[in-house]
Amino acid sequence: MSKIVILAEKPSQAKAYSDAFTIKKKDKTFIELNPCSIFPNGATITWGIGHLVELKQPKEYKSEWGTWRLSSLPILPERYEFKVATGKYEQFNAVKRLFKEADIIINGCDVDREGSNIFYSIYHMTGVRGKTIKRLWINSLEVDEVRKGFSNLHNNEKDLLLYAEAKTRQISDWLVGMNGSRLYTLLLQQKGFADSLSIGRVQSPTTYLIYQRHLEIENFVAKPFYEIEGNFAAANGKYRGKAKIKSEKQEEVQQLLDKHNITGKDTGVIKSVLKKEMRIKSPKLHALSTLQATANRRWKYSPKKVLDTVQKLYDKKILSYPRTDTQYITENEFAYLSANLESYQNLLENRFAAASKRPSKRYVDGSKVQEHYAIIPTKQVPTSAKIQGLLIEEKNIYFEVLNTTLAMFHHDYVYEETKVITSVNGLDFESVGKTEINKGWKELFNYGSKDKENPNAKKDENAAQALPILEKGEQVESIVKMKEGMTTPPKPYTEGQLISMMKTCGKSVENEEEMEILKEVEGLGTEATRSGIIETIKKHQYIEVKRNIVHITEKGKILCQSIEGNLLSSPSMTAKWETYLKKIGNGDGTPQAFLGSIAKFLNKLIEEVPGQLNAAPIQQSIDGVKNVSKKPIAICPRCKKGKISVSRSYYRCSEQENGCKQTFPGKLLGKTITEKQVKDLCTKGKTSLIKGFKPKAKEKKKFSAMLILKEDFTIGFEFANHSFVKK
């Protein structure tokens, strides 16, 4: 009588699994299932809380590694050790007990590399050995998909390879972070930089690409260019066109006008009127990155918000697995989408007659589906009540995915394109007009007039115009003139564009071989990690996002100037590393070889970086930041002698070295404390009302209050009718 234990990655996933069966017993650390056809003797579901197990900190290997010293580098443990994460012992011990009792253990964590890493990190930490391990591999948490998955469990051969890859990636990131961060921070502090730097295998080159865009904009010099534009009056109306010339030389354009004896007001003749029917197929299905880019463009959602929202909709069983990098589905998914088409349409305002229910290779191609298929609605069609119960961002994301999926059954968008060539004294002008014939799939998307396929495309003035009825051979009156324009700088990235930039950064790599590798591994990070990387860069204050526009900070500039010229600034490093990591996942490489190359890389950094940091621009940037950070905010309310100014992540008195203990936090209960609020505390003893304090990090309930400076010069809260003293 075999005892089966299933490990889910988190409690919500465990609940979704248990919904597919009948429950015998619920405990705060596990759920026991009744016997059924799939589990004749029943089964027990337990769970992690994300990572129950993590890598040890340097000081837990050697006490001398606990202090940041250049002499301690490189930090290279002989073997890498793990520990139970703080605050997670109770759940870990429950899992350990259940694993010991089990005959068969099923890895039910998320179906990706990180899910493999979480499972085996916990399994090895329990000390349990010799158990039969199976892998659940599903893309949906719907009841029938869960039951089908448990009926068709995979062996753990591929799972072990993914674990080896993920663990190697985890250790390499730890090594680069621990050594690189200490190396750069300590060397820059010798030069007067008061803050610390965080170095990362992926976050550092990503920050550098943002910095490069900043430099392109900052160093851009606008140049004039010249064109020839014609405004024409025909019998049935007016239209405009352009000659095929665009030059930075005004005299070159003038010579062309002179060559054709164009005075400005001449008679033209229509040489040709060509009409062509154009068809645009519906957009491809969503991968996570395309959904993140679309949602950021439409609703200004951050990539993390999109991932979190899709995860919630996945947990609610109405969208498929979120962390996918493909835009294709297999014929199995197409079959259920086709069968449920009418039910899905009941959720839409714009119902339509399906143009075809035959699968198209544009969307349905099993050869392009590996671990996961595209993000699509599940078989479970939500009721109106369930839709009404969704948060606004959940509704927006769900309907974006639903409409994009249903669009593949819709008619093409059809329009007639008219190209007109007008000759003025032998100089040809082209005009393009567009007449909509059938809105087709576009009627599903009520987001304005931007083309969903190319929403960022610049509007062509000619293409946008409505042409009057024109005849070949017709004479027209013309007003022709030279038109001056100015080149424009590249635009800064939006937060959504960062995802696309990370995915396509191979364009910035000059080496052709490395560019091909980056294309293959899809740039920096993975579909599952990119939004987290962006959040990390924000957390370290290398970038800030204002009104969805990404700006590099002064701290970010210092980081990028410091890593300039070595592999930490280049996607080339990721190209080489990701290729080998992929080999480990395929069974063609070894963790030992990869970590050996990381050790060589770190030794090279330690040798070369001190010289690289002598560059003059780095010192100038540090001096600039020092001057800004020392700008006083107010007289210290405690000692009345010193001045309060910014110091790293908090505010302090300039007389701190002489004994004054006055400080103010940079962040309090989830809210950033601004310089204005610190000034008010120092000068008035009270701030204006601040909204959005959170008593606990994960707590949704927020409160508003004014900060007050108490008699002992610590901070308290004041509400409308009473005070609350912060302990």
TrEMBL record:
Coiled-coil annotated spans: none
EC number(s) reported in the record: 5.6.2.1
Entry keywords, A to Z: DNA-binding, Isomerase, Magnesium, Metal-binding, Topoisomerase
Listed transmembrane segments: none
EC supergroup of this enzyme: isomerase
SMART domains, alphabetized: TOP1Ac, TOP1Bc, TOPRIM
Superkingdom of origin: Bacteria
SUPFAM superfamilies per the UniProt record, alphabetical: Prokaryotic type I DNA topoisomerase (SSF56712)
Catalytic activity: ATP-independent breakage of single-stranded DNA, followed by passage and rejoining
Residue ranges of every copy of the Topo IA-type catalytic domain listed in the record: 159-606
Pfam families: Topoisom_bac (PF01131), Toprim (PF01751), Toprim_Crpt (PF13342)
CDD domains, alphabetized: TOP1Ac (cd00186), TOPRIM_TopoIA_TopoIII (cd03362)
Cross-referenced PANTHER family: DNA TOPOISOMERASE 3-ALPHA, PROKARYOTIC DNA TOPOISOMERASE
Family to which this protein belongs: Belongs to the type IA topoisomerase family.
Name of the protein: DNA topoisomerase
Organism, scientific name: Fictibacillus nanhaiensis
